[in-house]
Specification:
70% of the residues lie in helices and 0% in strands. The longest helix has 33 residues. It is flat, with a radius of gyration of 17 Å.
Length: 100
């Protein structure tokens, strides 16, 4: 079981690095690249959900430090709001954060 999980995680990490080294295509606002949409729907969004859950968990544990330090809103924005916005409020296939 451990071997299967590590193989799957390794394959995911390997595929993500190959995407990062790929040549970036510039496109107009009206054009969507099919590969970007598929990668977004099947890799980036699920990883965003996992990252959001991890951020919520870390924020919950971090309350012990952020409430007395009076930086609750900053940690909530960084660990919870930003990952949730990137996962659910971003247009499909668009990885830049400047799109409205």
């Amino acid at each position: 079981m451990k071997t299967t999980i590590s193989t799957i995680l390794f394959a995911i990490l390997l595929s993500m690095t190959s995407i990062s080294f790929a040549e970036y295509e510039y496109y107009n606002d009206d054009e969507l690249n099919d590969q970007d949409v598929i990668i977004d729907l099947f890799m980036v969004r699920p990883l965003g959900i996992v990252g959001s859950a991890f951020g919520i968990t870390m924020h919950t544990f971090g309350l012990l430090f952020s409430v007395p330090g009076e930086n609750f809103s900053e940690t909530a924005e960084t660990l919870v709001e930003d990952p949730l916005n990137y996962t659910f409020n971003r247009p499909v296939g668009r990885f830049e954060e400047d799109h409205n």
